[in-house]
């Protein structure tokens, strides 16, 4: 990224698809795929500039581009933000921050020559600050979303692929909802029967599985206990139920 060639269009710093792919450590196909599957979020003139025809030919005269291109997408700073959001990994966000500081803001250290210029610079800085705050909020939300999954995988280390209701209550950590309260909520919502076994449709959905455990009630008498275990999909489903009732 330190050797990134400066690309400008009408005095606006932009990036080609190849440049943004290399900067974010991915490939052009991934960038194009993410764009095509999120087109509704991108606005021409704000997030990208599309060149074709005479504009593309004029642009090609001063930039080293493949001769077989019939259209060219140029990504603005806001477009680079959306691509980082689509990739949503530490590398992309780190590169985006450096692009903002060292590439797009080419005039950030220049002193505004008049009041309108200073006002525009202030508005641009405020908009960048708001975008970075949105990015940070997105990362925090993603971390919170992933937390139950991380705790689930820790919990199932010794139980192969599913955990019991008591462990689910600990993983989700809703105030005032322990093992018995969680059983009650799931019964009241028609997910578990009165004996705390899941209804078949929730087993078919891949939320639960039921196992038989043998135990000695007294010497010479073996009994069978039915135990309900919860898969990751089931943990996510229970969390949604608790979000509504808690």
Proportion in helices:
40-55%
Total count of helical runs of at least 4 residues: 10
Largest sheet, if any?
4 strands, antiparallel
Strand order of the largest sheet: 1-2-4-3
Low-pLDDT regions = 152-159
The H/E string reads EEHHEHEHHHEHHHEEH
Nearest-integer average pLDDT: 82
Number of strands: 7
**General form:** elongated
Distance between the termini: 47 Å
Strand content: 15-25%
Radius of gyration, whole Å: 27 Å
How would you briefly describe this protein structure?
The chain has about 250 residues and is an alpha+beta fold.
Task: Spell out the key features of this protein.
single chain; 246 residues; alpha+beta; 4-stranded antiparallel β-sheet; 17% strand
Structure overview:
There is one protein chain. This protein is an alpha+beta fold. 52% of the residues lie in helices and 17% in strands. It has helices spanning 17-23, 28-36, 53-61, 77-87, 90-104, 115-155, 165-172, 179-188, 200-204, 232-245; strands spanning 7-9, 12-16, 48-52, 71-75, 163-164, 208-218, 221-230. The strands form two sheets. A four-stranded antiparallel beta sheet has the order 1-2-4-3. The chain has a three-stranded antiparallel beta sheet with strand order 5-7-6. Strand 6 (208-218) and strand 7 form a beta hairpin. The protein is elongated and about 90 Å long. Residues 152-159 have low confidence and may be disordered.
């Amino acid at each position: 990224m330190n050797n990134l060639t400066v690309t400008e269009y009408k005095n606006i710093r932009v990036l080609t698809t190849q440049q943004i792919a290399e900067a974010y450590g991915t490939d052009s196909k991934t960038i194009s795929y993410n764009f095509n599957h999120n087109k509704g979020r991108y606005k021409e003139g704000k997030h990208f500039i599309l060149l074709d025809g005479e504009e593309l030919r004029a642009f090609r005269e001063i930039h080293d581009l493949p001769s077989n291109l019939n259209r060219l997408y140029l990504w603005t700073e806001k477009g680079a933000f959306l691509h980082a959001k689509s990739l949503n990994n530490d590398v992309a966000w780190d590169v985006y921050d450096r692009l903002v500081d060292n590439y797009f803001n080419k005039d950030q250290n220049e002193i505004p020559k008049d009041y309108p210029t200073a006002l525009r610079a202030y508005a641009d800085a405020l908009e960048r600050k708001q975008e970075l705050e949105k990015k940070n909020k997105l990362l925090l939300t993603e971390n919170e979303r992933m937390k139950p999954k991380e705790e689930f995988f820790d919990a199932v280390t010794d139980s192969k692929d599913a955990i019991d209701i008591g462990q689910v209550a600990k993983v989700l950590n809703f105030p005032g909802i322990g093992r018995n309260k969680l059983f009650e909520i799931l019964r009241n919502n028609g997910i578990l029967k009165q004996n705390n076994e899941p209804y078949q449709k929730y087993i078919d959905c891949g939320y639960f599985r039921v196992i038989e455990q043998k135990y000695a009630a007294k010497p010479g008498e073996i009994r069978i206990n039915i135990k309900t275990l919860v898969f990751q999909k089931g943990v996510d489903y229970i969390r949604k139920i608790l979000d509504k009732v808690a």
